[in-house]
Amino acid sequence: MASPELPAVVHKPADKCFTITLPEGTAVLEYEQQASGELDYYHTEVPESCRGKGLGGVLAKAALDYAVAEGKTVRLTCTYLQHYLTKHQTPEYMAAVKK
User: Are 75 and 39 in contact (CB under 8 A)?
Assistant: First the structure.
């Protein structure tokens, strides 16, 4: 049996967010870019009816992968992302996240 495909994450730099469009609404990870170039990932929200299905993790992975690929430093002020990082401590993520 094939596993379901992961939903598409869209990065919207002008809006400073990563999104997943769902029939129930939009899942979003919002950030600010500091003058230093550092990204502050400060808020993640998934429509209530879609919570517990891993969509926050899909957004977190996409946002952290983006930071790594772009050589950006990130600050995780979102508690969900802080929790995500404790379970996904890759060397690349750990190097990107500001302590």
Answer: yes
Residue 42 pLDDT more than 60? yes
How crowded is residue 81: how many other Cβ atoms within 10 Å of its Cβ? 24
Asked whether residue 61 carries a pLDDT value surpassing 60, the answer given is yes
CB 38 within 8 A of CB 77: no
At residue 61, what is the residue type? K
> pTM of this prediction?
0.91
Q: Which residues of 43-77 are buried (b: 16+ CB within 10 A; e: fewer)?
A: bbbbeeebeeeebbbbbbbbbbebbbeeeeebbbe
CA atoms within 13 A on the CB side of 81: 27
Mean pLDDT of 1-17: 81
